[in-house]
């Protein structure tokens, strides 16, 4: 019983850690933004951290980053801007943070020990969260199309 309580507690802490990691802002306008934007652009170019970012979302992020750089200029201080410009920068910041946080979560690599059909030897299978979701959706579509998922009515 004590082992179960410890396991549940550890799982809870891991979930809280993942939740906290996913809510930390990618761009924080209270700090200098130029290095943050450069880091994000390098990560976007590397295609690893945000590998699951859709092309349309990628374009939105790049455009929002350029608008933020343009509005903040060389100063990089949000408080020095006109209130309307501050709203625009904060809106672009939220857009970037939302899209990149989702892409980072989808790009997370998850490895599992699975036994392939017809074998008793487990293998380590590593896929991103998005790849696993796409494979699950393809499997479900195949089952729907072939009628396997519907139980046959036997008289």
What is the topological layout?
Blueprint: H1 2-23, H2 33-46, H3 55-72, H4 83-106, E1 109-114, E2 123-128, H5 129-146
Antiparallel strand pairs: 1-2
Helix pairs in contact: 2-3, 3-4
Main sheet specs: 2 strands, antiparallel
Mean pLDDT: 77
Structural class: mainly alpha
Termini separation (Å)?
A: 47 Å
Rounded radius of gyration (Å): 22 Å
Percent range of helical residues: 55-70%
Strand content: 5-15%
Flag low-confidence runs. 15-23
Helix tally? 5
Compute the number of strand runs.
Answer: 2
Widest beta sheet: strand line-up: 1-2
Form type: elongated
Order of helices and strands: HHHHEEH
Task: Explain the overall architecture.
The chain is mainly α. The chain has 5 helices and 2 strands, in the order H-H-H-H-E-E-H. The protein has helices spanning 2-23, 33-46, 55-72, 83-106, 129-146; strands at residues 109-114, 123-128. It has a two-stranded antiparallel ribbon with strand order 1-2. Helix 3 (55-72) runs antiparallel to helix 4. The protein is elongated, with a radius of gyration of 22 Å. The model is unreliable at 15-23 (pLDDT under 50).
């Amino acid at each position: 019983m004590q082992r179960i309580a410890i396991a549940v507690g550890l799982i809870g802490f891991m979930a809280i850690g993942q939740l906290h990691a996913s809510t930390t802002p990618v761009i924080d306008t209270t700090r200098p933004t130029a290095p943050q934007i450069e880091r994000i652009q390098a990560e976007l170019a590397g295609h690893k951290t945000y590998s699951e970012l859709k092309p349309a979302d990628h374009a939105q992020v790049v455009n929002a980053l350029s608008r933020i750089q343009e509005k903040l200029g060389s100063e990089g201080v949000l408080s020095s801007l006109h209130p309307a410009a501050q709203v625009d920068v904060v809106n672009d910041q939220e857009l970037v943070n939302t899209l990149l946080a989702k892409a980072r979560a989808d790009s997370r690599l998850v490895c599992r020990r699975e036994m392939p059909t017809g074998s008793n030897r487990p293998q380590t299978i590593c896929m991103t969260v998005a790849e696993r979701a796409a494979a699950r959706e393809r499997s479900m579509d195949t089952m729907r199309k072939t009628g396997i998922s519907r139980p046959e009515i036997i008289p």
